[in-house]
Protein backbone atom coordinates (compact mmCIF):
# COMPACT_ATOMS: atom_id res chain seq x y z
CA UNK A 1 0.00 0.00 0.00
CA UNK A 2 0.98 3.63 -0.47
CA UNK A 3 0.35 6.60 1.80
CA UNK A 4 0.50 10.01 0.15
CA UNK A 5 1.41 12.54 2.83
CA UNK A 6 3.87 12.35 5.70
CA UNK A 7 2.18 14.49 8.32
CA UNK A 8 0.86 13.15 11.61
CA UNK A 9 -2.18 11.45 10.08
CA UNK A 10 -0.34 9.87 7.15
CA UNK A 11 2.50 8.61 9.32
CA UNK A 12 0.08 7.21 11.89
CA UNK A 13 -1.76 5.29 9.16
CA UNK A 14 1.59 3.99 7.89
CA UNK A 15 2.69 2.91 11.36
CA UNK A 16 -0.58 1.13 12.16
CA UNK A 17 -0.70 -0.64 8.79
CA UNK A 18 2.97 -1.67 8.86
CA UNK A 19 2.56 -2.96 12.41
CA UNK A 20 -0.23 -5.22 11.14
CA UNK A 21 1.95 -6.74 8.46
CA UNK A 22 1.26 -4.64 5.39
CA UNK A 23 4.04 -3.46 3.08
CA UNK A 24 3.80 0.33 3.29
CA UNK A 25 5.43 3.16 1.36
CA UNK A 26 4.99 6.79 2.44
CA UNK A 27 5.41 9.46 -0.23
CA UNK A 28 6.22 13.03 0.85
CA UNK A 29 8.96 15.43 -0.27
CA UNK A 30 9.24 16.93 3.23
CA UNK A 31 7.55 14.81 5.92
CA UNK A 32 6.07 16.74 8.81
CA UNK A 33 6.62 20.15 7.21
CA UNK A 34 2.95 21.00 6.62
CA UNK A 35 0.15 21.67 9.09
CA UNK A 36 1.66 19.25 11.64
CA UNK A 37 4.78 21.41 11.92
CA UNK A 38 2.81 24.55 12.70
CA UNK A 39 0.10 22.99 14.91
CA UNK A 40 -0.14 23.72 18.63
CA UNK A 41 -1.05 20.16 19.61
CA UNK A 42 -4.13 20.75 21.75
CA UNK A 43 -6.16 17.59 22.35
CA UNK A 44 -9.37 19.46 23.12
CA UNK A 45 -12.61 17.62 22.37
CA UNK A 46 -14.48 19.80 24.85
CA UNK A 47 -13.02 23.25 24.21
CA UNK A 48 -13.15 22.63 20.44
CA UNK A 49 -16.79 21.48 20.42
CA UNK A 50 -19.04 24.05 18.80
CA UNK A 51 -22.69 24.70 18.02
CA UNK A 52 -24.08 22.49 15.26
CA UNK A 53 -21.11 20.10 15.19
CA UNK A 54 -22.38 17.19 17.30
CA UNK A 55 -21.10 14.45 14.99
CA UNK A 56 -17.66 16.04 14.81
CA UNK A 57 -17.66 16.44 18.59
CA UNK A 58 -18.41 12.71 18.95
CA UNK A 59 -15.41 11.90 16.76
CA UNK A 60 -13.20 14.29 18.75
CA UNK A 61 -14.28 12.68 22.02
CA UNK A 62 -13.67 9.18 20.65
CA UNK A 63 -10.20 10.07 19.43
CA UNK A 64 -9.21 11.94 22.59
CA UNK A 65 -10.18 8.85 24.61
CA UNK A 66 -7.66 6.85 22.57
CA UNK A 67 -4.83 9.31 23.12
CA UNK A 68 -3.43 8.02 26.46
CA UNK A 69 -2.95 4.48 25.12
CA UNK A 70 -1.84 5.77 21.72
CA UNK A 71 0.80 8.01 23.33
CA UNK A 72 2.09 5.21 25.56
CA UNK A 73 2.28 2.74 22.67
CA UNK A 74 3.97 5.24 20.36
CA UNK A 75 6.52 6.24 22.99
CA UNK A 76 7.37 2.57 23.55
CA UNK A 77 7.64 1.92 19.80
CA UNK A 78 9.78 4.98 19.04
CA UNK A 79 11.65 5.87 22.22
CA UNK A 80 10.53 9.49 21.72
CA UNK A 81 8.99 11.63 24.48
CA UNK A 82 5.87 13.17 22.88
CA UNK A 83 5.50 15.99 25.38
CA UNK A 84 2.07 14.56 26.27
CA UNK A 85 0.58 16.50 29.20
CA UNK A 86 -2.66 16.05 31.11
CA UNK A 87 -3.05 19.13 33.31
CA UNK A 88 -6.28 20.08 31.51
CA UNK A 89 -7.41 23.27 29.82
CA UNK A 90 -8.68 26.52 31.31
CA UNK A 91 -11.18 28.44 29.18
CA UNK A 92 -11.42 32.07 30.27
CA UNK A 93 -13.04 35.40 29.48
CA UNK A 94 -11.22 38.69 30.01
CA UNK A 95 -14.24 41.03 29.95
CA UNK A 96 -17.89 40.67 30.82
CA UNK A 97 -18.78 40.29 27.15
CA UNK A 98 -16.03 37.71 26.69
CA UNK A 99 -17.31 35.73 29.65
CA UNK A 100 -20.92 35.89 28.43
CA UNK A 101 -19.87 34.45 25.06
CA UNK A 102 -17.87 31.72 26.76
CA UNK A 103 -20.74 30.83 29.10
CA UNK A 104 -23.10 30.41 26.15
CA UNK A 105 -20.76 27.80 24.70
CA UNK A 106 -20.17 26.09 28.06
CA UNK A 107 -23.93 25.65 28.45
CA UNK A 108 -24.10 23.94 25.07
CA UNK A 109 -21.12 21.73 25.90
CA UNK A 110 -22.56 20.70 29.25
CA UNK A 111 -25.89 19.87 27.55
CA UNK A 112 -23.90 17.41 25.42
CA UNK A 113 -22.60 15.80 28.61
CA UNK A 114 -19.06 17.08 28.11
CA UNK A 115 -16.88 17.58 31.21
CA UNK A 116 -16.44 21.33 31.70
CA UNK A 117 -16.82 23.04 35.08
CA UNK A 118 -17.20 26.81 35.60
CA UNK A 119 -14.81 28.44 38.09
CA UNK A 120 -14.94 31.71 39.98
CA UNK A 121 -12.09 34.18 39.39
CA UNK A 122 -10.51 33.24 42.73
CA UNK A 123 -10.64 29.54 41.82
CA UNK A 124 -9.06 30.28 38.45
CA UNK A 125 -6.15 32.10 40.04
CA UNK A 126 -5.72 29.38 42.64
CA UNK A 127 -5.06 27.05 39.71
CA UNK A 128 -3.06 29.55 37.66
CA UNK A 129 -1.72 32.56 39.59
CA UNK A 130 -0.19 33.87 36.35
CA UNK A 131 -3.64 34.77 34.99
CA UNK A 132 -4.36 38.50 34.84
CA UNK A 133 -6.46 39.96 37.64
CA UNK A 134 -8.73 41.40 34.93
CA UNK A 135 -9.91 37.92 33.89
CA UNK A 136 -13.60 37.83 34.83
CA UNK A 137 -14.07 34.08 35.04
CA UNK A 138 -13.57 30.77 33.36
CA UNK A 139 -14.00 27.02 33.37
CA UNK A 140 -11.85 23.93 33.39
CA UNK A 141 -12.00 21.07 30.89
CA UNK A 142 -9.92 18.49 32.78
CA UNK A 143 -9.86 15.97 29.92
CA UNK A 144 -8.49 18.40 27.31
CA UNK A 145 -4.78 17.58 27.10
CA UNK A 146 -1.84 18.49 24.84
CA UNK A 147 1.04 16.96 22.88
CA UNK A 148 4.00 18.44 21.01
CA UNK A 149 3.21 17.87 17.29
CA UNK A 150 6.84 18.15 16.20
CA UNK A 151 7.86 15.41 18.62
CA UNK A 152 4.79 13.45 17.53
CA UNK A 153 5.87 13.49 13.88
CA UNK A 154 9.40 12.41 14.83
CA UNK A 155 7.99 9.56 16.91
CA UNK A 156 5.59 8.41 14.19
CA UNK A 157 8.29 8.49 11.55
CA UNK A 158 10.58 6.41 13.78
CA UNK A 159 7.86 3.93 14.76
CA UNK A 160 6.66 3.51 11.17
CA UNK A 161 10.21 2.86 10.01
CA UNK A 162 10.82 0.32 12.76
CA UNK A 163 7.58 -1.44 11.79
CA UNK A 164 8.84 -1.77 8.23
CA UNK A 165 7.35 1.22 6.41
CA UNK A 166 9.51 2.88 3.74
CA UNK A 167 9.67 6.65 3.23
CA UNK A 168 10.04 7.95 -0.32
CA UNK A 169 11.20 11.58 -0.25
CA UNK A 170 9.25 12.79 -3.24
CA UNK A 171 5.89 14.18 -4.22
CA UNK A 172 3.09 12.45 -6.12
CA UNK A 173 1.57 14.23 -9.11
CA UNK A 174 -1.01 11.57 -9.96
CA UNK A 175 -2.28 8.56 -8.04
CA UNK A 176 -1.97 6.54 -11.24
CA UNK A 177 1.81 6.82 -10.89
CA UNK A 178 1.73 4.65 -7.76
CA UNK A 179 2.14 0.88 -7.90
CA UNK A 180 -0.03 -0.08 -4.94
CA UNK A 181 -3.09 -2.20 -4.30
CA UNK A 182 -4.36 0.38 -1.82
CA UNK A 183 -3.57 4.10 -1.65
CA UNK A 184 -4.36 6.37 1.30
CA UNK A 185 -4.44 10.07 0.48
CA UNK A 186 -3.41 12.01 3.60
CA UNK A 187 -2.02 14.93 1.65
CA UNK A 188 -3.70 17.80 3.49
CA UNK A 189 -4.14 20.78 1.20
CA UNK A 190 -2.70 18.76 -1.67
CA UNK A 191 -5.71 16.42 -1.58
CA UNK A 192 -7.87 18.36 -4.05
CA UNK A 193 -5.36 18.10 -6.88
CA UNK A 194 -5.03 14.33 -6.39
CA UNK A 195 -8.65 13.37 -5.75
CA UNK A 196 -10.95 16.22 -6.72
CA UNK A 197 -12.30 16.37 -3.16
CA UNK A 198 -13.28 19.92 -2.05
CA UNK A 199 -10.40 20.39 0.39
CA UNK A 200 -9.21 23.99 0.60
CA UNK A 201 -6.37 25.74 2.46
CA UNK A 202 -7.26 27.73 5.59
CA UNK A 203 -4.36 29.89 6.75
CA UNK A 204 -3.33 30.03 10.39
CA UNK A 205 -0.65 32.27 11.89
CA UNK A 206 0.93 31.11 15.15
CA UNK A 207 3.69 32.28 17.49
CA UNK A 208 6.18 30.54 19.74
CA UNK A 209 7.57 32.31 22.80
CA UNK A 210 10.20 31.20 25.27
CA UNK A 211 10.64 31.96 28.96
CA UNK A 212 13.58 34.39 29.29
CA UNK A 213 15.39 32.38 31.99
CA UNK A 214 15.26 29.17 29.96
CA UNK A 215 13.04 27.52 32.54
CA UNK A 216 9.47 26.26 32.26
CA UNK A 217 6.66 28.77 31.68
CA UNK A 218 5.01 30.32 34.70
CA UNK A 219 1.73 28.48 34.09
CA UNK A 220 0.88 24.78 33.60
CA UNK A 221 -2.54 24.54 31.99
CA UNK A 222 -3.41 25.22 28.40
CA UNK A 223 -5.26 28.55 28.49
CA UNK A 224 -7.91 29.28 25.88
CA UNK A 225 -10.31 32.16 25.77
CA UNK A 226 -11.34 35.57 24.60
CA UNK A 227 -9.61 38.87 25.26
CA UNK A 228 -11.75 41.84 24.22
CA UNK A 229 -13.38 39.62 21.62
CA UNK A 230 -10.11 38.19 20.28
CA UNK A 231 -9.93 34.38 20.53
CA UNK A 232 -6.54 33.08 21.60
CA UNK A 233 -4.89 30.01 23.08
CA UNK A 234 -1.69 29.61 25.08
CA UNK A 235 0.01 26.21 25.22
CA UNK A 236 2.88 25.89 27.75
CA UNK A 237 5.60 23.29 27.16
CA UNK A 238 7.97 21.91 29.78
CA UNK A 239 10.83 23.03 27.52
CA UNK A 240 9.98 26.67 28.27
CA UNK A 241 8.13 27.22 25.02
CA UNK A 242 4.66 28.77 24.88
CA UNK A 243 2.63 28.41 21.69
CA UNK A 244 0.26 31.32 20.98
CA UNK A 245 -2.38 31.03 18.29
CA UNK A 246 -3.98 31.24 15.97
CA UNK A 247 -5.63 33.12 13.16
CA UNK A 248 -8.20 31.54 10.85
CA UNK A 249 -8.01 33.07 7.39
CA UNK A 250 -9.53 32.03 4.07
CA UNK A 251 -6.22 32.49 2.31
CA UNK A 252 -3.65 30.21 0.70
CA UNK A 253 -0.43 32.11 1.43
CA UNK A 254 1.95 31.48 4.33
CA UNK A 255 3.05 35.06 4.92
CA UNK A 256 3.28 36.26 8.53
CA UNK A 257 1.67 39.67 9.00
CA UNK A 258 2.43 42.33 11.58
CA UNK A 259 -1.27 42.79 12.33
CA UNK A 260 -1.79 39.14 13.19
CA UNK A 261 1.31 39.05 15.40
CA UNK A 262 0.10 42.20 17.18
CA UNK A 263 -3.40 40.83 17.81
CA UNK A 264 -2.14 37.48 19.09
CA UNK A 265 0.46 39.02 21.40
CA UNK A 266 -1.96 41.60 22.76
CA UNK A 267 -4.55 38.94 23.59
CA UNK A 268 -1.91 36.63 25.09
CA UNK A 269 -0.46 39.33 27.35
CA UNK A 270 -3.95 40.47 28.38
CA UNK A 271 -4.62 36.98 29.74
CA UNK A 272 -1.13 36.15 31.09
CA UNK A 273 0.82 39.41 31.64
CA UNK A 274 4.21 37.75 32.25
CA UNK A 275 4.31 36.78 28.56
CA UNK A 276 5.30 40.37 27.78
CA UNK A 277 8.78 39.47 29.07
CA UNK A 278 9.13 36.27 27.04
CA UNK A 279 11.29 36.02 23.93
CA UNK A 280 9.50 35.81 20.59
CA UNK A 281 11.37 32.95 18.93
CA UNK A 282 9.13 31.99 16.02
CA UNK A 283 6.29 33.43 13.96
CA UNK A 284 4.97 31.10 11.29
CA UNK A 285 1.93 30.47 9.14
CA UNK A 286 0.56 27.17 7.92
CA UNK A 287 -2.35 25.89 5.87
CA UNK A 288 -5.03 23.72 7.43
CA UNK A 289 -7.00 21.42 5.10
CA UNK A 290 -10.61 22.57 5.37
CA UNK A 291 -13.83 21.19 3.88
CA UNK A 292 -17.20 22.81 3.10
CA UNK A 293 -18.84 21.31 6.21
CA UNK A 294 -15.75 21.55 8.47
CA UNK A 295 -15.63 17.77 8.87
CA UNK A 296 -12.71 15.52 7.94
CA UNK A 297 -12.90 13.16 4.98
CA UNK A 298 -12.16 9.57 5.98
CA UNK A 299 -12.81 6.43 3.96
CA UNK A 300 -13.00 5.01 0.44
CA UNK A 301 -13.47 7.28 -2.57
CA UNK A 302 -16.52 6.38 -4.66
CA UNK A 303 -15.54 5.27 -8.14
CA UNK A 304 -11.86 4.98 -7.21
CA UNK A 305 -11.27 1.34 -6.20
CA UNK A 306 -8.50 0.96 -3.66
CA UNK A 307 -8.24 4.68 -2.88
CA UNK A 308 -9.06 5.99 0.59
CA UNK A 309 -8.98 9.50 2.02
CA UNK A 310 -7.67 10.53 5.43
CA UNK A 311 -7.71 14.30 5.14
CA UNK A 312 -9.64 17.54 5.68
CA UNK A 313 -9.10 17.64 9.45
CA UNK A 314 -8.86 21.46 9.55
CA UNK A 315 -8.05 22.49 13.16
CA UNK A 316 -8.32 18.94 14.50
CA UNK A 317 -5.60 16.93 12.77
CA UNK A 318 -3.55 16.18 15.87
CA UNK A 319 -6.39 15.19 18.19
CA UNK A 320 -7.99 13.09 15.42
CA UNK A 321 -4.78 11.26 14.50
CA UNK A 322 -5.43 8.08 16.55
CA UNK A 323 -9.03 7.52 15.49
CA UNK A 324 -8.31 8.31 11.84
CA UNK A 325 -5.39 5.89 11.74
CA UNK A 326 -7.40 3.16 13.46
CA UNK A 327 -10.47 3.54 11.22
CA UNK A 328 -8.47 3.62 7.99
CA UNK A 329 -6.26 0.72 9.04
CA UNK A 330 -9.29 -1.38 9.96
CA UNK A 331 -10.86 -0.70 6.56
CA UNK A 332 -7.69 -1.80 4.79
CA UNK A 333 -6.84 -4.82 6.91
CA UNK A 334 -10.37 -6.23 6.68
CA UNK A 335 -9.81 -6.39 2.92
CA UNK A 336 -12.74 -4.11 2.22
CA UNK A 337 -11.16 -0.79 1.21
CA UNK A 338 -13.85 -0.22 -1.42
CA UNK A 339 -16.82 -1.15 0.77
CA UNK A 340 -19.09 1.17 2.76
CA UNK A 341 -17.78 2.26 6.14
CA UNK A 342 -17.75 -0.64 8.58
CA UNK A 343 -17.76 1.55 11.70
CA UNK A 344 -20.80 3.77 12.45
CA UNK A 345 -18.43 6.36 13.91
CA UNK A 346 -17.10 6.85 10.39
CA UNK A 347 -20.41 7.29 8.57
CA UNK A 348 -20.72 11.11 8.80
CA UNK A 349 -17.19 11.61 7.44
CA UNK A 350 -16.99 9.42 4.33
CA UNK A 351 -16.12 11.00 0.96
CA UNK A 352 -19.51 9.94 -0.42
CA UNK A 353 -21.07 13.14 0.91
CA UNK A 354 -19.07 15.10 -1.68
CA UNK A 355 -19.81 12.80 -4.62
CA UNK A 356 -21.53 15.60 -6.54
CA UNK A 357 -18.77 18.12 -5.83
CA UNK A 358 -15.69 16.14 -6.83
CA UNK A 359 -13.59 17.32 -9.72
CA UNK A 360 -11.64 14.80 -11.72
CA UNK A 361 -8.38 14.04 -9.95
UniProtKB/TrEMBL annotation:
EC number(s) recorded for this UniProt protein: 1.4.3.19
Catalytic activity of the protein: glycine + O2 + H2O = glyoxylate + H2O2 + NH4(+)
UniProt xrefs under InterPro entries: D-isomer_DH_CS1, FAD-dep_OxRdtase, FAD/NAD-bd_sf, Gly_oxidase_ThiO
The keyword Membrane belongs to this UniProt entry's keyword annotation: no
GO MF entries: flavin adenine dinucleotide binding; glycine oxidase activity
Pathway field: Cofactor biosynthesis; thiamine diphosphate biosynthesis
GO CC annotations, alphabetized: cytoplasm
Keyword list, A-Z: Oxidoreductase, Thiamine biosynthesis
TM stretches of this protein: none
GO BP annotations listed: thiamine biosynthetic process; thiamine diphosphate biosynthetic process
Domain FAD dependent oxidoreductase residue range list: 2-331
Name this protein carries in UniProt: glycine oxidase
